[in-house]
Design goal:
It is a single chain. The protein has twelve helices and no strands. Helix 7 (120-130) packs antiparallel against helix 8 and helix 8 (133-146) packs antiparallel against helix 9 (156-170). It is mainly alpha-helical. It has helices at 3-14, 38-44, 59-66, 73-80, 85-97, 104-113, 120-130, 133-146, 156-170, 176-208, 210-221, 232-245.
């Protein structure tokens, strides 16, 4: 197999689906200089990465409690330093369970650089959980930049909801200054989607005929996009995190 193609597959699997440049490129991401062992990933990653957002089936929490005495700063740093969304999300979550506040800059930079997908919502959750001037600043920096990037369908909504949650907790009104940018981004993103859909429709017309192309566009017209923000999910997640963390003190 071609080495470049294999590298692309590896990056895609790690979550680096969209590679982009940003104003945060000068920031240094925390990265390991070694590969994780199978034993380590079998223990700390595979049983957890798909479950840590689940507050209904808590078998993963019971599993973590069994490992409580083995969960160290080295473990969380190793997870956060691996270039993969699975390890980074688990590392961020375990870091907050152990209250490793010195790792906040690592999580904050991971959010700002958004090098891998499927992780930003959890970073936002953890930064909101800490609720310090430092963690709030990371959320604001993210929004100030990524709300002006409609072509990057990242975690803007999750970060906005984190800010909305903090407004409720702190009696502030930070969300309001981002709503205009949010609505503008949604409008621009919709226009980008229209252009892409027209291109796809033309391809379908060439391959399957005009009737199939028109059917494709008609089905798209029936899709309802809901841009409403809600803090229900993040409120539940933070409440659960607070309860779980009490077992790790």
């Amino acid at each position: 197999m071609n080495n470049d193609f294999q590298e692309e597959l590896n990056l895609h699997s790690a979550g680096a689906i969209i590679r982009h440049t940003s104003v945060f490129d000068h920031m240094e991401s925390y990265k390991n200089n070694f590969q994780l062992s199978k034993e380590f990933t079998d223990k700390w990653v595979l049983p957890l990465y798909m479950k840590i957002r689940n507050t209904h089936d808590l078998s993963w929490a019971d599993y973590l409690l069994e490992l409580k005495n083995e969960l160290t700063e080295d473990v969380t740093l190793t997870l956060l330093g691996d270039f993969n969304w699975r390890t980074r999300t688990v590392g961020a979550y375990l870091s907050v369970l152990k209250n490793y506040e010195n790792q906040i800059p690592i999580i904050g930079v991971h959010l700002l650089k958004s090098e891998v997908c499927y992780a930003g919502d959890l970073y936002a959750l953890i930064l909101a959980y800490y609720n310090t001037p430092e963690t709030i600043e990371y959320l604001h920096k993210y929004l100030e930049y990524y709300l002006q990037k409609p072509e990057l369908d990242f975690d803007q909504e999750a970060v906005l909801e984190a800010v909305a949650y903090l407004d409720m907790i702190n009696k502030t009104d930070n969300l309001s200054k981002y709503l205009k940018l949010w609505n503008k981004m949604l409008e621009e993103r919709n226009e980008i989607s229209k252009v892409r859909n027209i291109r796809i429709a033309k391809i379908i017309e060439k391959q399957e005929g005009k009737e199939s192309s028109e059917k494709y566009l008609k089905n798209l017209d029936q899709v309802i996009i809901n841009p409403e923000l809600s803090i229900k999910h993040i409120t539940e997640q933070i409440k659960f995190l607070q309860e779980l963390r009490s077992y790790f003190d």
